[in-house]
Records
---
Amino acid sequence: MAELKATYSNNNLDFSAVLRKKVNEYFVSSERKPTGNIRLYLKTAILVLIAISSYLLLITQIAPIWVNILVCVLFGTNLAAIGFNLMHEGAHGTYSGKRWVNEIMAFSLNVMGGNAYLWKQKHNVNHHSFTNIEGLDDDIDIKPWFRTNNNQPKHWFHRYQHIYWVLLYGFTYLIWVFSLDFKKYFTGKLTTDVTLKKMKPKEHFEFWISKILYLFFFLVLPVFMVGFLKTLIGYLITSFVCGWLISVVFQLAHLVEGADFPVPNEQTQQIDHDWTVHQLLTTANFANKSKIVLWFTGGLNFQIEHHLFPKISHVHYPMVSKLVREVCLQYNIRYTEYPTVLSAVRSHVSFMKEIGRK
């Protein structure tokens, strides 16, 4: 069976050209590099220090049990922040102007149990190229547990997905590390319709050695240091918090009311608009005025700007956002934003309820 494909029309090219020219002129006139700056590097130092301190505190067990539980929550939160800021920026090549620095930052995903090679294809290529297109965007494929759009099959339990997501999102990190990566690795498929780019010997080695080291440092060594039960409880708390936060932040960007799920024309396999407009119609922002949310999520609350300009670091998103809004207003293109995290969560719940019952 032929793989599913999608192309974009040449509509709205004037809008796209004006938008890109406006953003390029901003960086030229301000003499700023589109990559990260001292604020991102300082954040990196803080997050890495918290991660190392939390890990050492947990495997030495020098604190009371209730403190260790809180540290597990902090550790899971911090790992999510590392994923949002270090890994995500590095994988997109926006952390630094130096490629080797970006590769190190992207490799932080391997330290956390994932795989940067698989992530770059799944996220950078497929998700960013074919956002919210069923069969091509792996980020909206959470079958069979969740139904994320009307192009997916419906099961009876989807009627309650707007309720049980609160629990199941927390297990997505475990499923990712121990199941989905291996499924992609052994089947050679990113999705049912997308073939994984062939891995080189170096990438095979990195896949296996990082998985083994992750198991050693996150499970074997802690069991040796503090015992099986404490390790199991601590690991489950940490991974649940990390997985829940990662899932929520990514889902609030695309699985909310107002986000489109375009279907390519059956004959031409073409989407009715160009790629730039497609990103605006399938993506939403949230809590753009919150400096805390921006700091923690690595600018993923400015998801529109990230999708339009994936080669620009999140430290520039607040300013870029103003330019995007101006051009969208000029051309009457929809710009979806939820003012707070809570309002975006409400929209996500309403969206999941509607999709689960249709």
Note: The mean pLDDT is 94.
---
Amino acid sequence: MTYLPRLPNDLIKQTQEALKLREGTIEFRYRSNELFDPGLDTGILMQVLSGQNLLRLERDRNFNLHFFHSSLGTGTRVATVGLDPLKGSLALRIKLIWSLDNIGLQVSDADDPRRSISQMGEPSERRFRVGDHGSVIEIGGEGLDVMEYRTSVKGRTTLEPTALEFWTDTIRATEILLKGTSTEGYIFENVTTNVAVVMLATGFETYCKKRFLELELEGINADYLSLVSNFLSIREREANQLKAFEGEAAGEQISPVHKLVKDRRVDFGNWDDCKKAYNKGYGIRFGEDLGVPPTHLEEIQRLIEHRDRVVHVSPMLPRVSKGDVPPRR
């Protein structure tokens, strides 16, 4: 849950809105008689939740101040400073900085800015996810390596790996596969290469689908009407049909955009559908906006096409023509 002691509701809402931004800065004055109390254990000074985004400021028993920032797109990062040089300060001025690339923490004596310490962030061994009803779930920790996690309640998945975590696991599994050896010779290398292509292309499809929905959970709304005009038929776009579709989404407790994806109106395994969905939904162009070279995009497309050939023809064929594969529907 959000924890901002003695802060008015309007400022809490402003802080939550700021946390939805891809980059931002929060600066405030903090005063507490307990901040430098050696008898206190680890404690949370403040915590802000906004959708699936989390910001937490925590002091540990060794007088270290930790700034955690977690989102579905970046994972959990932490910036840490030691408070010993600031002992004796009556109040602190704390600045929290985050962007897609990094986070930073700056702490100074509110009455003497010359006494100041700062640190940039790094990936955190402690990972945080926002669960149902504003709960905060901690995964892993110092010296712990969690391979995968999933939780479900009454058959409904309530927590699963993020798109980024899923893709990282896909790369890791592919690397393990390609390290295998066999006495079969070339045919083994050919089969493992084909299986690796299937894993990577399917992993890319799953990543794009999960990430598309995660953006909405992070507070970035897709252009629903643009998606409707590009992925629903003329008949389905009629007022009564569209209203029924939106009613079904409400009944399933998901957004209409989520239902478009859930009902496979968008096929992220189809290169053209995938590009169009991101472009029409979020205004993202893979090449221009993400800085991916055209040669890389062409290679991704070739790998997806090869994946389809391997699946529909044979995992042992080194090469087949495009005409051998039925089109995706």
Note: The first strand starts at residue 24 and ends at 30.
